[in-house]
């Protein structure tokens, strides 16, 4: 499973290079999560997850506070959570998660991005069954053995623990996302290089040449859409 860190790393690098767009999307995601319950991460798990992710992307506190204040206010914006599934070049699999206040805008934009870049939209369920929702937490300062022992003592079962580029990457069940982080904090680790609830493909494929270029254009086109929050796929983008 360790190779899947490649795609998470590539995604973070891409988002780091487009900070203003990323911050705006996090603002919407934080607002929507806060509206699901209390605007307090200690009592709102969805909000806690989003805020932990935001920290790893260095989202400014001012943007986080603005989104939380908006959620606490009297103005209520309605956003729908949508998932689109489709296929890219060579039958590659793509999942697109969106938050939108205008479904009639989002669906045509996503479909257009697919059609213009060698792909096509699929029906619900055509792709998602090949992916697993997974908590991915990355840290520095511990070995694999130390991490395994710490999580064992905390009675937390994980899917895998890998060492990637001087980092320890833990793959866990989604319901253990916060538990793994709390275990690290108890061990003195408070900074996370990655803290994601993501969709990992059960198998990955590799592309090359023009096909790879076209696929990357498809992913870029999808991620540039304002309503799109996350794009998952089954292509190994690592070297």
UniProtKB/TrEMBL annotation:
Residues 79-235 form the TACO1/YebC-like second and third domain. GO terms for molecular function: DNA binding. Residues 3-73 form the TACO1/YebC-like N-terminal domain. Its main location: cytoplasm. It is found in: Cytoplasm. Keywords: Cytoplasm, DNA-binding, Transcription, Transcription regulation. NCBIfam families: PRK00110.1, PRK12378.1, YebC/PmpR family DNA-binding transcriptional regulator. Belongs to the TACO1 family. YeeN subfamily. This is Probable transcriptional regulatory protein ACFSJH_19105. It comes from Paenibacillus yanchengensis. The lineage of its organism: Bacteria, Bacillati, Bacillota, Bacilli, Bacillales.
